[in-house]
Amino acid sequence: MTEVASAPAVASTPSVIGRLLGDLAIAYREVTDHPGLDPARKVQAVLLDDSVGALMVLYTQSHLLDLNRLADLIGRRMTAVAPDRLQLLLDKHGLSLLPGLPALTNSPCLYEEQLLLQPSLLISAGEPGILLEIPREDFKRLLSNASAGRFGVPLSTIELNRDHAGDDGEAITQAVQAFTARRIQQRLEATIELPPLSESVRKIMRLRSDPEVTIDEVTSVVETDPALAAQVLSWASSSYYASQSKIRSVEDAIVRVLGVDLVINLALSLSLGKTLSLPKDHPQSSTPYWQQSIYTAAVIEGLTRAMPREHRPEVGLTYLAGLLHNFGYLLLAYVFPPHFSLICRHLEVNPHVSHSVIEQHLLGISREQMGAWLMGFWEMPDELAIAVRFQHDPDYVGTDAQFPNLVCLALRLLRSRGIGQGACTPLPDALFDRLGVPRDKAEAVVGKVLEAEVLLREMAAKFSQN
Protein backbone atom coordinates (compact mmCIF):
# COMPACT_ATOMS: atom_id res chain seq x y z
CA MET A 1 0.00 0.00 0.00
CA THR A 2 1.42 3.39 -0.94
CA GLU A 3 1.67 6.30 1.52
CA VAL A 4 -1.08 8.12 -0.35
CA ALA A 5 -3.35 5.11 -0.56
CA SER A 6 -3.12 4.67 3.20
CA ALA A 7 -4.67 8.10 3.77
CA PRO A 8 -8.48 8.23 3.85
CA ALA A 9 -10.09 9.82 0.81
CA VAL A 10 -12.14 12.97 1.31
CA ALA A 11 -14.56 13.86 -1.48
CA SER A 12 -14.58 17.60 -0.94
CA THR A 13 -12.90 19.01 -4.04
CA PRO A 14 -14.44 22.41 -4.89
CA SER A 15 -16.67 22.16 -7.96
CA VAL A 16 -14.67 24.76 -9.92
CA ILE A 17 -11.53 22.61 -9.62
CA GLY A 18 -13.36 19.41 -10.50
CA ARG A 19 -14.86 21.01 -13.62
CA LEU A 20 -11.52 22.47 -14.68
CA LEU A 21 -9.70 19.15 -14.41
CA GLY A 22 -12.61 17.39 -16.09
CA ASP A 23 -12.57 19.78 -19.04
CA LEU A 24 -8.84 19.17 -19.43
CA ALA A 25 -9.31 15.38 -19.10
CA ILE A 26 -6.87 15.27 -16.17
CA ALA A 27 -7.07 12.15 -14.00
CA TYR A 28 -6.91 12.73 -10.27
CA ARG A 29 -7.97 11.32 -6.94
CA GLU A 30 -8.57 13.01 -3.62
CA VAL A 31 -6.20 12.50 -0.69
CA THR A 32 -6.25 13.77 2.87
CA ASP A 33 -3.18 15.85 3.64
CA HIS A 34 -1.07 14.57 6.53
CA PRO A 35 2.55 14.95 7.74
CA GLY A 36 3.62 11.54 6.42
CA LEU A 37 3.30 12.58 2.77
CA ASP A 38 6.54 13.07 0.87
CA PRO A 39 7.14 16.84 0.50
CA ALA A 40 8.99 16.16 -2.78
CA ARG A 41 5.59 15.25 -4.27
CA LYS A 42 3.63 18.18 -2.81
CA VAL A 43 3.38 21.14 -5.19
CA GLN A 44 3.69 24.62 -3.67
CA ALA A 45 2.04 27.34 -5.77
CA VAL A 46 2.75 31.04 -5.36
CA LEU A 47 1.66 34.05 -7.38
CA LEU A 48 4.35 36.67 -7.89
CA ASP A 49 4.29 40.05 -9.60
CA ASP A 50 6.30 43.10 -10.55
CA SER A 51 5.78 46.11 -12.81
CA VAL A 52 5.61 43.80 -15.87
CA GLY A 53 2.83 41.57 -14.56
CA ALA A 54 2.01 38.41 -12.61
CA LEU A 55 3.68 34.99 -12.75
CA MET A 56 2.57 31.69 -11.20
CA VAL A 57 5.51 29.72 -9.83
CA LEU A 58 5.34 26.01 -8.96
CA TYR A 59 7.92 24.04 -6.96
CA THR A 60 7.91 21.18 -4.47
CA GLN A 61 7.69 21.54 -0.71
CA SER A 62 11.06 19.82 -0.44
CA HIS A 63 12.55 23.02 -1.88
CA LEU A 64 12.87 26.67 -0.96
CA LEU A 65 12.00 29.25 -3.61
CA ASP A 66 15.12 31.42 -3.91
CA LEU A 67 14.10 34.84 -5.26
CA ASN A 68 17.71 35.68 -6.12
CA ARG A 69 18.05 32.60 -8.33
CA LEU A 70 14.68 33.35 -9.87
CA ALA A 71 15.77 36.91 -10.68
CA ASP A 72 18.95 35.61 -12.32
CA LEU A 73 16.90 33.14 -14.36
CA ILE A 74 14.15 35.45 -15.69
CA GLY A 75 15.78 38.87 -15.34
CA ARG A 76 12.96 40.18 -13.13
CA ARG A 77 12.95 40.91 -9.40
CA MET A 78 9.55 39.60 -8.29
CA THR A 79 7.72 39.43 -4.95
CA ALA A 80 4.52 37.81 -3.69
CA VAL A 81 1.30 39.51 -4.78
CA ALA A 82 -0.44 41.55 -2.10
CA PRO A 83 -2.73 39.44 0.12
CA ASP A 84 -5.85 41.44 -0.81
CA ARG A 85 -5.19 40.87 -4.52
CA LEU A 86 -4.68 37.15 -4.01
CA GLN A 87 -7.85 37.02 -1.92
CA LEU A 88 -9.83 38.58 -4.78
CA LEU A 89 -8.63 35.80 -7.09
CA LEU A 90 -9.52 33.09 -4.57
CA ASP A 91 -12.93 34.62 -3.83
CA LYS A 92 -13.67 34.73 -7.55
CA HIS A 93 -13.38 30.94 -7.68
CA GLY A 94 -14.72 30.24 -4.18
CA LEU A 95 -11.39 28.88 -2.91
CA SER A 96 -9.39 29.21 0.30
CA LEU A 97 -5.95 28.25 -1.07
CA LEU A 98 -4.17 28.66 -4.39
CA PRO A 99 -3.97 25.31 -6.25
CA GLY A 100 -1.01 24.54 -8.52
CA LEU A 101 -3.13 24.81 -11.66
CA PRO A 102 -1.81 27.28 -14.26
CA ALA A 103 -5.19 27.24 -16.08
CA LEU A 104 -6.81 28.84 -13.04
CA THR A 105 -5.13 32.20 -13.69
CA ASN A 106 -4.44 34.20 -16.82
CA SER A 107 -0.79 34.66 -15.91
CA PRO A 108 2.26 32.84 -17.32
CA CYS A 109 3.64 29.92 -15.31
CA LEU A 110 7.18 28.87 -14.41
CA TYR A 111 7.86 25.54 -12.71
CA GLU A 112 10.87 23.97 -11.03
CA GLU A 113 12.00 21.26 -13.44
CA GLN A 114 12.59 18.76 -10.63
CA LEU A 115 8.81 18.64 -10.16
CA LEU A 116 8.58 16.16 -13.00
CA LEU A 117 11.00 13.68 -11.44
CA GLN A 118 8.15 12.30 -9.33
CA PRO A 119 5.78 9.55 -10.59
CA SER A 120 2.79 11.60 -9.40
CA LEU A 121 2.23 15.03 -7.87
CA LEU A 122 0.03 16.26 -5.04
CA ILE A 123 -1.58 19.67 -5.45
CA SER A 124 -3.92 21.58 -3.18
CA ALA A 125 -7.60 21.18 -4.03
CA GLY A 126 -8.18 24.77 -2.97
CA GLU A 127 -9.32 23.92 0.56
CA PRO A 128 -7.21 23.10 3.66
CA GLY A 129 -6.40 19.45 4.23
CA ILE A 130 -7.39 18.18 0.77
CA LEU A 131 -4.86 17.24 -1.93
CA LEU A 132 -5.32 15.93 -5.45
CA GLU A 133 -2.98 13.21 -6.66
CA ILE A 134 -2.22 13.64 -10.39
CA PRO A 135 -0.04 11.24 -12.43
CA ARG A 136 3.12 12.80 -13.85
CA GLU A 137 2.05 12.48 -17.50
CA ASP A 138 -1.23 14.27 -16.80
CA PHE A 139 0.56 16.94 -14.81
CA LYS A 140 2.88 17.50 -17.77
CA ARG A 141 -0.17 18.37 -19.86
CA LEU A 142 -1.18 20.98 -17.27
CA LEU A 143 2.24 22.56 -17.86
CA SER A 144 2.10 22.51 -21.66
CA ASN A 145 2.25 26.32 -21.87
CA ALA A 146 4.55 26.77 -18.87
CA SER A 147 8.32 27.23 -18.76
CA ALA A 148 10.75 25.10 -16.75
CA GLY A 149 13.78 26.28 -14.81
CA ARG A 150 16.03 25.64 -11.83
CA PHE A 151 15.48 28.16 -9.06
CA GLY A 152 14.69 26.02 -6.00
CA VAL A 153 17.10 25.11 -3.23
CA PRO A 154 16.71 21.62 -1.67
CA LEU A 155 15.88 22.06 2.01
CA SER A 156 18.10 19.07 2.74
CA THR A 157 21.15 21.16 1.79
CA ILE A 158 20.42 23.90 4.34
CA GLU A 159 21.92 22.84 7.67
CA LEU A 160 20.82 24.48 10.91
CA ASN A 161 22.97 24.52 14.03
CA ARG A 162 20.38 23.03 16.37
CA ASP A 163 22.61 21.95 19.23
CA HIS A 164 25.88 23.85 19.59
CA ALA A 165 24.89 27.22 21.01
CA GLY A 166 28.54 27.93 21.83
CA ASP A 167 29.24 28.32 18.11
CA ASP A 168 26.62 31.06 17.61
CA GLY A 169 28.97 33.98 18.26
CA GLU A 170 31.38 32.90 15.53
CA ALA A 171 28.49 32.19 13.14
CA ILE A 172 27.01 35.66 13.70
CA THR A 173 30.41 37.28 13.15
CA GLN A 174 30.84 35.37 9.87
CA ALA A 175 27.37 36.39 8.73
CA VAL A 176 28.03 40.04 9.51
CA GLN A 177 31.41 39.96 7.76
CA ALA A 178 29.82 38.39 4.70
CA PHE A 179 27.69 41.52 4.27
CA THR A 180 30.23 44.22 5.01
CA ALA A 181 32.72 45.78 2.62
CA ARG A 182 35.46 45.63 5.27
CA ARG A 183 36.09 41.92 5.80
CA ILE A 184 38.25 42.23 8.89
CA GLN A 185 38.38 40.20 12.08
CA GLN A 186 36.62 42.02 14.90
CA ARG A 187 34.99 41.13 18.15
CA LEU A 188 31.28 40.46 17.68
CA GLU A 189 30.05 43.35 19.77
CA ALA A 190 32.30 45.76 17.86
CA THR A 191 31.12 44.39 14.54
CA ILE A 192 27.43 44.74 15.36
CA GLU A 193 27.80 48.01 17.29
CA LEU A 194 24.87 47.24 19.56
CA PRO A 195 23.25 50.17 21.34
CA PRO A 196 24.00 50.18 25.08
CA LEU A 197 21.28 49.25 27.52
CA SER A 198 19.57 52.26 29.07
CA GLU A 199 19.98 52.94 32.76
CA SER A 200 16.30 52.19 33.33
CA VAL A 201 16.78 48.71 31.82
CA ARG A 202 19.77 48.07 34.06
CA LYS A 203 17.81 49.16 37.11
CA ILE A 204 14.89 46.90 36.16
CA MET A 205 17.26 43.97 35.65
CA ARG A 206 18.73 44.54 39.10
CA LEU A 207 15.24 44.56 40.59
CA ARG A 208 14.44 41.33 38.75
CA SER A 209 17.35 39.54 40.36
CA ASP A 210 16.53 40.78 43.88
CA PRO A 211 14.22 38.33 45.73
CA GLU A 212 13.58 40.96 48.42
CA VAL A 213 12.47 43.71 46.03
CA THR A 214 9.79 46.01 47.44
CA ILE A 215 6.87 47.84 45.84
CA ASP A 216 8.51 51.16 46.72
CA GLU A 217 11.69 50.22 44.82
CA VAL A 218 9.75 49.17 41.72
CA THR A 219 7.60 52.31 41.88
CA SER A 220 10.67 54.51 42.18
CA VAL A 221 12.37 53.00 39.10
CA VAL A 222 9.24 53.13 36.96
CA GLU A 223 8.46 56.73 37.91
CA THR A 224 11.92 57.92 36.83
CA ASP A 225 10.97 57.04 33.22
CA PRO A 226 7.86 59.09 32.28
CA ALA A 227 7.10 56.97 29.19
CA LEU A 228 7.38 53.76 31.20
CA ALA A 229 5.24 55.14 33.99
CA ALA A 230 2.54 56.13 31.50
CA GLN A 231 2.67 52.64 30.00
CA VAL A 232 2.24 50.94 33.39
CA LEU A 233 -0.77 53.12 34.14
CA SER A 234 -2.18 52.31 30.71
CA TRP A 235 -1.76 48.55 31.27
CA ALA A 236 -3.41 48.68 34.65
CA SER A 237 -6.35 50.63 33.22
CA SER A 238 -6.74 48.18 30.32
CA SER A 239 -9.99 46.24 29.99
CA TYR A 240 -7.89 43.06 30.03
CA TYR A 241 -7.21 43.50 33.76
CA ALA A 242 -10.78 44.65 34.47
CA SER A 243 -9.86 47.10 37.21
CA GLN A 244 -12.92 48.07 39.25
CA SER A 245 -11.85 51.66 39.87
CA LYS A 246 -9.67 54.39 38.38
CA ILE A 247 -5.90 53.87 38.65
CA ARG A 248 -4.31 57.09 39.89
CA SER A 249 -0.61 56.25 40.36
CA VAL A 250 2.10 53.74 39.52
CA GLU A 251 1.94 52.39 43.06
CA ASP A 252 -1.82 52.03 42.67
CA ALA A 253 -1.28 50.05 39.46
CA ILE A 254 1.23 47.71 41.10
CA VAL A 255 -0.62 47.11 44.36
CA ARG A 256 -4.20 46.85 43.13
CA VAL A 257 -3.90 45.41 39.61
CA LEU A 258 -0.63 44.20 38.14
CA GLY A 259 1.63 43.06 40.95
CA VAL A 260 5.39 43.51 41.27
CA ASP A 261 6.41 40.54 39.12
CA LEU A 262 4.26 41.43 36.13
CA VAL A 263 5.26 45.11 36.20
CA ILE A 264 8.95 44.24 36.23
CA ASN A 265 8.63 41.79 33.33
CA LEU A 266 6.44 44.04 31.20
CA ALA A 267 8.68 47.03 31.91
CA LEU A 268 11.81 45.08 31.03
CA SER A 269 10.31 43.79 27.78
CA LEU A 270 9.08 47.22 26.72
CA SER A 271 12.40 48.91 27.59
CA LEU A 272 14.38 46.31 25.62
CA GLY A 273 11.95 46.71 22.72
CA LYS A 274 12.71 50.43 22.65
CA THR A 275 16.44 49.64 22.45
CA LEU A 276 15.86 48.02 19.03
CA SER A 277 12.90 49.57 17.27
CA LEU A 278 10.37 47.64 15.17
CA PRO A 279 11.43 47.34 11.52
CA LYS A 280 9.29 49.23 9.02
CA ASP A 281 9.27 46.26 6.63
CA HIS A 282 7.68 42.92 7.52
CA PRO A 283 6.27 39.87 5.73
CA GLN A 284 2.77 40.32 4.32
CA SER A 285 0.01 38.80 6.45
CA SER A 286 2.37 38.23 9.39
CA THR A 287 1.18 38.57 12.97
CA PRO A 288 2.41 41.94 14.34
CA TYR A 289 5.51 41.62 16.55
CA TRP A 290 4.04 42.73 19.88
CA GLN A 291 0.76 40.94 19.26
CA GLN A 292 2.64 37.67 18.79
CA SER A 293 4.71 38.37 21.92
CA ILE A 294 1.72 39.19 24.12
CA TYR A 295 -0.27 36.16 22.92
CA THR A 296 2.71 33.86 23.47
CA ALA A 297 3.42 35.21 26.94
CA ALA A 298 -0.23 34.86 27.96
CA VAL A 299 -0.40 31.25 26.75
CA ILE A 300 2.91 30.42 28.48
CA GLU A 301 1.62 31.89 31.73
CA GLY A 302 -1.45 29.63 31.54
CA LEU A 303 0.64 26.56 30.62
CA THR A 304 3.06 27.22 33.47
CA ARG A 305 0.23 27.44 36.00
CA ALA A 306 -1.19 24.20 34.57
CA MET A 307 2.06 22.34 35.33
CA PRO A 308 2.37 20.25 38.51
CA ARG A 309 3.37 22.60 41.32
CA GLU A 310 6.50 20.63 42.25
CA HIS A 311 7.89 20.93 38.68
CA ARG A 312 6.65 24.43 37.90
CA PRO A 313 9.33 27.02 36.97
CA GLU A 314 9.08 30.67 37.97
CA VAL A 315 5.94 32.01 36.29
CA GLY A 316 7.36 35.50 35.86
CA LEU A 317 10.46 34.23 34.05
CA THR A 318 8.50 31.97 31.70
CA TYR A 319 6.17 34.90 30.95
CA LEU A 320 9.21 37.05 30.14
CA ALA A 321 10.53 34.28 27.85
CA GLY A 322 7.27 34.56 25.93
CA LEU A 323 7.53 38.34 25.63
CA LEU A 324 11.14 38.15 24.39
CA HIS A 325 11.03 34.92 22.37
CA ASN A 326 11.20 36.71 18.99
CA PHE A 327 13.67 39.43 20.00
CA GLY A 328 16.15 38.06 17.46
CA TYR A 329 13.77 39.33 14.76
CA LEU A 330 14.47 42.91 15.88
CA LEU A 331 18.21 42.22 15.99
CA LEU A 332 18.10 40.70 12.51
CA ALA A 333 16.54 43.89 11.13
CA TYR A 334 19.05 46.03 13.04
CA VAL A 335 22.18 44.16 11.94
CA PHE A 336 21.21 43.36 8.33
CA PRO A 337 19.01 46.30 7.22
CA PRO A 338 19.71 46.00 3.46
CA HIS A 339 18.93 42.29 3.52
CA PHE A 340 16.03 42.19 5.95
CA SER A 341 13.57 43.03 3.16
CA LEU A 342 14.91 40.09 1.14
CA ILE A 343 14.22 37.80 4.11
CA CYS A 344 10.66 39.16 4.31
CA ARG A 345 10.07 38.54 0.61
CA HIS A 346 11.33 34.95 0.92
CA LEU A 347 9.06 34.33 3.90
CA GLU A 348 6.10 35.44 1.77
CA VAL A 349 6.77 32.98 -1.06
CA ASN A 350 7.85 30.03 1.12
CA PRO A 351 5.01 29.52 3.61
CA HIS A 352 5.94 25.84 3.95
CA VAL A 353 9.46 26.67 5.18
CA SER A 354 10.40 27.85 8.67
CA HIS A 355 11.95 31.30 8.99
CA SER A 356 15.05 29.68 10.54
CA VAL A 357 15.78 27.75 7.34
CA ILE A 358 15.26 30.84 5.16
CA GLU A 359 17.55 32.95 7.37
CA GLN A 360 20.18 30.22 7.43
CA HIS A 361 20.07 30.03 3.63
CA LEU A 362 20.32 33.80 3.08
CA LEU A 363 22.54 34.85 6.00
CA GLY A 364 24.10 31.76 7.52
CA ILE A 365 22.48 32.52 10.89
CA SER A 366 18.97 32.45 12.39
CA ARG A 367 17.13 34.98 14.53
CA GLU A 368 17.04 32.43 17.38
CA GLN A 369 20.84 32.19 17.42
CA MET A 370 21.19 35.97 17.32
CA GLY A 371 18.53 36.55 19.98
CA ALA A 372 20.06 34.00 22.35
CA TRP A 373 23.50 35.49 21.87
CA LEU A 374 22.12 38.96 22.63
CA MET A 375 20.46 37.71 25.84
CA GLY A 376 23.87 36.48 26.96
CA PHE A 377 25.66 39.63 25.84
CA TRP A 378 23.22 41.74 27.84
CA GLU A 379 23.63 39.39 30.83
CA MET A 380 19.99 38.38 30.94
CA PRO A 381 19.11 35.19 32.88
CA ASP A 382 20.49 32.02 31.30
CA GLU A 383 16.98 30.56 31.14
CA LEU A 384 15.96 33.31 28.70
CA ALA A 385 18.89 32.65 26.36
CA ILE A 386 18.09 28.92 26.35
CA ALA A 387 14.38 29.60 25.78
CA VAL A 388 15.14 31.81 22.78
CA ARG A 389 17.81 29.50 21.33
CA PHE A 390 15.86 26.22 21.43
CA GLN A 391 12.26 27.47 21.15
CA HIS A 392 11.54 25.51 17.96
CA ASP A 393 12.96 22.19 19.14
CA PRO A 394 10.17 20.09 20.71
CA ASP A 395 12.72 17.40 21.60
CA TYR A 396 15.07 19.64 23.61
CA VAL A 397 15.89 18.03 26.98
CA GLY A 398 19.02 19.96 27.98
CA THR A 399 19.58 22.48 30.76
CA ASP A 400 16.46 24.42 31.82
CA ALA A 401 14.46 22.55 29.15
CA GLN A 402 11.13 23.67 30.63
CA PHE A 403 11.65 27.19 29.29
CA PRO A 404 12.18 26.42 25.57
CA ASN A 405 9.64 23.58 25.85
CA LEU A 406 6.97 26.02 27.07
CA VAL A 407 7.76 28.53 24.31
CA CYS A 408 7.70 25.78 21.68
CA LEU A 409 4.35 24.46 22.92
CA ALA A 410 2.79 27.93 23.08
CA LEU A 411 3.97 28.87 19.57
CA ARG A 412 2.75 25.60 18.02
CA LEU A 413 -0.63 25.81 19.75
CA LEU A 414 -1.11 29.39 18.59
CA ARG A 415 -0.04 28.48 15.06
CA SER A 416 -2.72 25.78 14.99
CA ARG A 417 -5.22 28.60 15.66
CA GLY A 418 -3.90 30.74 12.79
CA ILE A 419 -1.62 33.00 14.85
CA GLY A 420 2.01 33.25 13.80
CA GLN A 421 3.82 32.29 10.62
CA GLY A 422 5.01 29.02 9.11
CA ALA A 423 3.65 25.55 8.59
CA CYS A 424 1.60 23.79 11.27
CA THR A 425 3.52 20.76 12.51
CA PRO A 426 2.25 18.10 14.93
CA LEU A 427 3.24 18.28 18.60
CA PRO A 428 4.81 15.11 20.04
CA ASP A 429 3.18 13.56 23.09
CA ALA A 430 6.59 13.59 24.79
CA LEU A 431 6.54 17.41 24.96
CA PHE A 432 3.26 17.39 26.91
CA ASP A 433 4.57 14.58 29.11
CA ARG A 434 7.79 16.42 30.01
CA LEU A 435 5.84 19.51 31.05
CA GLY A 436 3.18 17.50 32.87
CA VAL A 437 0.36 19.25 30.98
CA PRO A 438 -2.21 17.02 29.23
CA ARG A 439 -2.91 17.93 25.60
CA ASP A 440 -6.57 18.78 26.25
CA LYS A 441 -5.64 21.03 29.17
CA ALA A 442 -3.08 22.85 26.98
CA GLU A 443 -5.68 23.37 24.26
CA ALA A 444 -8.05 24.74 26.91
CA VAL A 445 -5.39 27.25 27.98
CA VAL A 446 -5.08 28.58 24.42
CA GLY A 447 -8.83 28.75 24.07
CA LYS A 448 -9.14 30.79 27.25
CA VAL A 449 -6.44 33.21 26.11
CA LEU A 450 -8.04 33.69 22.71
CA GLU A 451 -11.37 34.46 24.35
CA ALA A 452 -9.66 37.69 25.40
CA GLU A 453 -8.16 38.26 21.93
CA VAL A 454 -9.61 41.75 21.49
CA LEU A 455 -8.27 42.86 24.87
CA LEU A 456 -4.85 41.32 24.18
CA ARG A 457 -4.67 43.22 20.88
CA GLU A 458 -5.41 46.44 22.76
CA MET A 459 -2.53 45.65 25.09
CA ALA A 460 -0.20 44.84 22.18
CA ALA A 461 -1.16 48.14 20.54
CA LYS A 462 0.01 49.96 23.65
CA PHE A 463 3.45 48.37 23.24
CA SER A 464 3.58 49.37 19.58
CA GLN A 465 2.96 53.03 20.38
CA ASN A 466 6.36 53.33 22.03
Automatic annotation (TrEMBL):
PROSITE patterns: HDOD (PS51833)
Domain HDOD: 194-394
Pfam family of the protein (one): tRNA_edit
SUPFAM superfamilies per record: HD-domain/PDEase-like, YbaK/ProRS associated domain
InterPro entries the record matches: HDOD (IPR013976), RNase_Y/CdgJ (IPR052340), UCP036888_HDGYP-like (IPR014627), YbaK/aa-tRNA-synt-asso_dom_sf (IPR036754), YbaK/aa-tRNA-synth-assoc-dom (IPR007214)
Top-level division of the source organism's lineage: Bacteria
Name of the protein in its database record: Aminoacyl-tRNA deacylase and HDOD domain-containing protein
